[in-house]
């Protein structure tokens, strides 16, 4: 069973990529006829390895730039929400009397 505590952060775990590396590592042990039979399979594995999505990171390292952008965005969103709530509260407080009647003629 694989234990993630003993794995390197950049260790390859994709079975298809591992198969390609194993075949390439033993390529010289095959006869020319065996190589001809394996070649379409090796090309397919190489294409898969080149076009697969990036593997998810297993480390706890946070990208500093992403963290800064998220912090700025969360501050800006919080500021905009607060200002919208304050504006709504001001409209409600100044546009309605203690009985709930509208103080302005043009408001329904």
List keywords for this structure.
rod-shaped, mainly alpha, 2 domains, 108 residues
Architecture blueprint of SSEs:
Blueprint: H1 15-25, H2 32-51, H3 64-95
Task: Give an account of the 3D structure.
With 108 residues, this protein is mainly α. The chain has 2 domains: 1-61, no CATH class; 62-108, no CATH class. It contains 3 helices and no strands. It has helices spanning 15-25, 32-51, 64-95. Helix 1 packs antiparallel against helix 2. The longest helix is centred in the last third of the chain and has 32 residues, at 64-95. The chain starts with 14 loop residues before the first helix and ends in a 13-residue tail after the last helix.
Rounded to the nearest angstrom, the radius of gyration is: 31 Å
Number of strands: 0
The major beta sheet can be summarized as:
none
Overall pLDDT metric: 78
Helix content: 55-70%
What structural category characterises the helix and strand content? Answer: mainly alpha
